[in-house]
Amino acid sequence: ETGVTQTPRHLVMGMTNKKSLKCEQHLGHNAMYWYKQSAKKPLELMFVYNFKEQTENNSVPSRFSPECPNSSHLFLHLHTLQPEDSALYLCASSRLTGGDSYEQYFGPGTRLTVT
Amino acid sequence: ELKVEQNPLFLSMQEGKNYTIYCNYSTTSDRLYWYRQDPGKSLESLFVLLSNGAVKQEGRLMASLDTKARLSTLHITAAVHDLSATYFCAVVYSDMRFGAGTRLTVKP
User: Fold this and answer.
1) Residues with Cβ < 8 Å from B85, sequence gap 6 or more?
2) CA–CA separation, B93 vs B33, rounded Å?
3) Which residues make beta-bridge pairs with B75?
């Protein structure tokens, strides 16, 4: 596998379900990001992890819970979501130092539908 | 707080025409990126602009950066249908912030 991968690619869940999104980067980067993309807000930063430490939480509701066990893996745990949470969830990674630092490489996204 | 503004947000143009997308940002930065997103797909990096006066070209797209004016432009020359997509600019401050995107539709 190369680049940034995300699983699953599509997810349909009820409001009472618990599910997790997974992101893995094979680029040797040390920062990872979760974004939400919907018709209302084209690209909304949710969480940032630098060297496995969460450095940003953009007022995201607690029904979204991120986890970063190491610099290559990032999870987004979902529980008791609302229909308005239906969106494309994108994961990205970047290097924090070096010539191409900060340039973000995106995964293919998970299309989430909450019913 | 860093603000990144793109205009126009929607652009419909005919094949063969030229047009420019603008990206203004509010805080000093010397690093700006342009991304492309096809419908239902992820973001793909197009250009990295690292210094004042930087100009990059790829095919029918040319990007430039004026750090003093805090402005980047993405110029489209002789548009073709394959360029239809949403284009995002992104600026690095403490981290990367994206503009709202410009949805470009090229019609025959």
Assistant:
1) B36, B37, B38, B39, B104
2) 12
3) B20, B62
Per-residue pLDDT reduced to its tens digit, A28-59? 999 999 999 988 777 888 999 987 777 777 78
Calpha distance B79→B108 (Å, rounded): 10
Cβ neighbour number for residue B96 with a 10 Å cutoff: 23
Residues of chain A with C-beta less than 8 angstroms from the C-beta of B100: 42-43
Whole-angstrom distance, CA of residue B20 vs CA of residue B74: 6
Cβ-Cβ contacts under 8 Å, B31 against chain A: 102
Rounded CA separation B89/B25 (Å): 10
Query: Tokens 């349909």 label which residue?
Result: A12
The amino acid at B34? W
How would DSSP label each residue in B45-90? Answer: EEEEE-STT-EEEETTEEEEEETTTTEEEEEE-S--GGG-EEEEEE
Diameter of chain A measured on Cα atoms: 45
pLDDT in tens, A81-103: 999 999 999 999 998 765 566 78
Our CA-based measurement puts residue B41 at a distance from the nearest CA of chain A, in whole angstroms, of 6
The tokens for A24 are 């893995």
Q: Is the peptide bond before A61 cis (omega within 30 degrees of 0)?
A: no
Write out chain A residues lying below 8 Å of B86, CB-based: 42
Contact B45 A48 (CB under 8 A): no
